[in-house]
Amino acid sequence: MTTTTARTTTIFRRPRSETGFWSWITTVDHKKIGIMYGYTAFIFFVIGGVEALLLRIHLASAESTFLTAADYNGLFTTHAVTMIFLVVMPMSAAFMNYLLPLMIGARDVAFPRLNALSYWVFLFGGIFLYSGLIFSSVVPPLGVTPGVTGNLDPSDARSFFGLPDGGWFMYQPNAGPAFSPGRALDFAVLGLQILGIASLLSSVNFIVTFFNLRAKGMRLLRVPVFIWMTLVVAFLLLFSLPIIAIALFMVIFDRQFGTLFFDATAGGDPILWQHLFWLFGHPEVYILILPAMGIVSEIIPVFSRKPLFGYAAVVFAGAGIAFLGFGVWAHHMFASGISTVAQVGFGLTTVAIAIPTGVKIFNWMATLWLGRIRLATPMLFALGFLTMFTIGGLSGVTHAVVPSDWQQHDTYYIVAHFHYVLFGGSILGIFGGLYYWFPKFSGRMLDERLGKIHFWLWMLGFNMTFAPMHWLGLQGMIRRTWRYDPSLEFWNRIVSVGAFIIALGLLVFMWNFYRSKRRGPLAGMDPWDARTLEWSIPNPTPVFNFAEVPVVHGLDEFWHQKYGEDKDGRPVRKDDADSTLTRLQEIGTNPPNPVHLPSPSYFPILMAAGLPLIAYGIIFHLSLFGKALIVVGALLSLAALIGWGSEPLEEAHMEPAHA
Amino acid sequence: MAQNRLRRLFLLATLALVVAGCSVIGIPDSPLNSLDPQGPFSRRIDALFWPVFWVATAIFVLVEGAVVIAAIVFRDRPGRPEPRQIHGNNKLEILWTVIPALILASVAVPTVRGVIELTSCGVDAYPVEIIGHQWWFEYRYPEEGIDTATVLVIPAGREVCATMTSEDVLHNYWIPQLNGKRYLVPGQETLLRLQADEPGEYRGQCAEFCGLSHSLMRAEVRAVTEEEFTAWIAAQKEPAAEPAAGTPEAAGRDVFLNRCTQCHTIDPVNVVVEEAFNGPNLTHFMDRGWIAGGYLPYSRENLARWLSNPPDTKPGSYMPDLALTQVEIDALTAYLETLR
Amino acid sequence: MTAASHEVSEHHDEHESTGVENRKLAMWAFLSSEFLFFGALITNYLLYSSRTFEQGPTPAEIYDIPFTSVSSFVLLMSSLTMVLAHNALSRGDQGATRTWLLATAMLGSVFLAGQVFEFTEFITVQGMTMQTNPAASAFFVLTGFHGTHVAIGVIMLLSLFGLSKRMGGLTDKRFLNLELVGLYWHFVDIIWIVIFTVVYLLTAVPGAGG
């Protein structure tokens, strides 16, 4: 952490590759890191999607035998964990990484190597989590009485050997040592712990970047909304991750070292787990949705050719949602038997959080109103977000009514609600962002026709999948149910068909992405006639981002470089707009001055590699092998840390000729 | 050509919708329908749900309508002038902060009243205890010393106050037609009020994920008239009938004594002493009409299926496969059918 | 994790900035997260300490308040020596800086030794382990995590000490290193003050301990 010696730098030759495999392994470039986040998350999206399809095939009939109960429970657990921690969060992180420096006019984030470390920790955490499939077994950990039959019986039919099956919420004591023996859940718990470290590092990095690296003139209320939402999410992570870290530590101590936090027979308190989990879990919901809200806030003005209506209100509403988000956690527990006072209090805060959410929706609508709307694919997805998220928000209000929630809690009504928020919200927003910023990182355009097919397939499939779930839930179909009443079969079949239409839409997207990345039309400088700084540099983004760090004069800086306003307040393209663009393109490709860039480094990936080793060691800590793993992992991380501390951030200076 | 194809497609789609519509009409409501209140508490919740639902629907129509209209009316067409660059409007901001706040406040008031009314039992409520097990519900009537399972018998028209806890993991007792759901927490007690207007059978389900056979952990509340209830109590207090020696029933009783007494009680045949192996009390087994934690309705066929390999029917079941022979199963069935 | 990362921001004139150095801002952000980490741990302990369990003893019944008071005092003094190290460096007095750094590390180690003694005493003499009851679990996990933080702090202090000897000084850029370690060290101390007051003094059963 603190050593800086000239001698040690010679131990390890500094990585030099600028292209190819090693350039990705050793990169500290926020753009490459962002792209890696994106691809990794997409792979997990496909995995999580396949899990969902398996679940839907099973649920197509009421007394299905397609999956065993153990597999079913395992799949719904991993589907949730994957989609939340390995898809939506890293997808958002992909956009944040790529765009944060670009939108505030910086060359990189504040701590480039730390940023690389975040990515590798995330990747290894994800791989570790899924490696439980191979390495877990049903051999019980400490604290289990052998010889008790029932769900401790290793003969339970499992084809997906070792999937954690306690639900992503891991309610105790069901996910504790006595009722979920085996190592599968330990992999989930420690995997989440590792992923939490990645998020914590990112959040610190983004906070510092936001506060210290904004281009000259970019005062706080000139920062694009997406970047504001990045900051808000970073703070949410900063304050909610320590809570879940503690909760997960308690579980892992219970499971591996025999503590009694959640063992009711010894006086432990299972409800405490719920409090801790949701004290993290509810801010987590906003961690998932706010980035998409930020993306939509960027897309809608561009395609309406109007500034965002009520910019400050949208920003403050976002911050308000985050703030209130820490005070609503117990609405997940209205049925848990918490006190009347708590139910009333949390009911009221839950109702209150609808207000800033509404403010955002109304401001987006006002931005559309009187605009000149181009229904290009990014805009379609943004409008999809707006309409579908609204449904999710409104169904949310219906279970803010506490007694109604007693009926709806743990039914498919809730499943419908949060998929409208997380798929109809986060995922549609994220894909809108993908269509919008694809030219930024590839230099090419995605195919519009295929994009529209993708959009309409998703709107159809999505609503077929999740709209009937409202009805199913009100008809009493509980969540996480392996079997259900035969009267519910019809709508379940519709739902299952819808799920496959979503999958079809995704295939269209994948084809579009694959083809456009190679052969799509070149994007040029400013394909969408956009408003924010990231479009004032060539596509794809040059390695140094800005040849000259821009000076900002107002909100939507780039737009004002191109457009003035007539006396009616209508935009008029400046006479020199085209020459401005040409000049920007020119200096963007041939920087006039040498640009100093941080050099690549081996140490982030090495340091990250130590963490899963330690985690494996904890799981197998009873054996000598496990103890050795802990030591090896710790030494590896420590060695990488020393190496890290002893190499300077930048060495070679980038010459303009190389650009 | 293209138009023709479009028309045909449209026709097909309409047909599909009609077919779908017809089949939807034919679907019976689920026995767990939460929109069909049959008691004062569920009715209270229902009365809270619908106004909020309609308000939400109105907002839904408003927002979605506005978005669709905007997308059509303000769509970029040739000759459409550049829009005026409106940055915001403070009056509007205040308006769409205050109006939703007022609407939500009007939702909040009845919510608070509903919570306060529904979270504590009435003083005259009839007390029962509900204990969750993986994967069945146990009921105790503390005033009568009765211990039964799966089917909770209550007097119609009278409030029942259930004090609930769990033996193992979290469970959740939910009879949608009578009230919302409430967790059963090991080491803690929760309260649930139940009341049915009319005699009848109301299905329920464990709503909190509780392990392998969570989906099969079902329940029923059977509401009966006061007279029937008194008679039921009296019958429950009776010991089990003693089969005559040499009959198939007596053979079944022997099988029971040999194989089942580690977990199951039949008063006065035996009493299970060890808590950890507590299975449902079978003294009045036939009264319930359900087996396997409420998953299977009672029939000889279902009972044979259950006895021949319980974990096969209910994954993870604590009742192991006892490798009973067909002869043993038949004898056991004959004996169990005497337990009325 | 933060070493030498500040070059990126050295062109302050190009940026809107808080004026707080990047690494310092990062440390503040990290410590604010740590506050909640310990907040959750302390809350856990308080929740369980107010309950009774079949299996005893609970931590509150066996605290040795006089002993812990002494070790708390030691840790408190280490904050003082840390400040002295900081002052010495700002005066440019390398020798004094080294001395005070070493003193801080030593005091931290004494505190850790005290904790090891306390744990051993509880486990072997009093018969209270992590597996005894939830209050004991919460106690060991809370104080264990705090001890880990102190240990990491001691390692950082020692590496600073080593650095100061080998590189001929902690001046200039490396002044910040000392400041960051100082921030962290004070944080760990403050947390202990809270733990000692809330977890030990307020929950201790009067007359118990030994």
Notable traits:
heterotrimer; B: 340 residues; alpha+beta; Immunoglobulin-like; 2 domains; 5-stranded mixed beta sheet; 8 helices; C: 210 residues; mainly alpha; Four Helix Bundle (Hemerythrin (Met), subunit A); 6 helices; 73% helix; 1% strand; elongated; disordered N terminus
Could you explain how this protein is built, in words?
The complex is a heterotrimer of chains A (659), B (340) and C (210). Chain A has 659 residues and is mainly alpha-helical. Chain A has helices at residues 21-25, 30-59, 69-104, 112-135, 184-212, 225-257, 270-304, 311-325, 340-368, 377-400, 402-408, 412-442, 448-474, 489-519, 557-562, 577-589, 603-619, 624-646, and strands at residues 214-215, 563-565, 571-573. By secondary structure, chain B is of the alpha+beta class. Chain B folds into two domains: 37-77 and 113-237, Immunoglobulin-like, CATH 2.60.40; 248-336, Immunoglobulin-like, CATH 2.60.40.420. Chain B has helices at residues 2-25, 40-73, 90-118, 226-237, 248-259, 300-308, 310-313, 326-336, and strands spanning 126-133, 136-141, 146-149, 151-155, 160-166, 171-174, 182-184, 190-194, 200-206, 218-224, 290-291, 296-297. The mean pLDDT of chain B is 91. Chain C is mainly α and 210 residues long. Chain C has helices at residues 22-49, 59-62, 65-91, 94-125, 134-166, 173-201; one strand at residues 15-16. Chain C has six helices and one strand; from the N terminus they run βαααααα. The relative contact order of chain C is 0.17. The interface between A and B is large, with 104 and 99 residues.
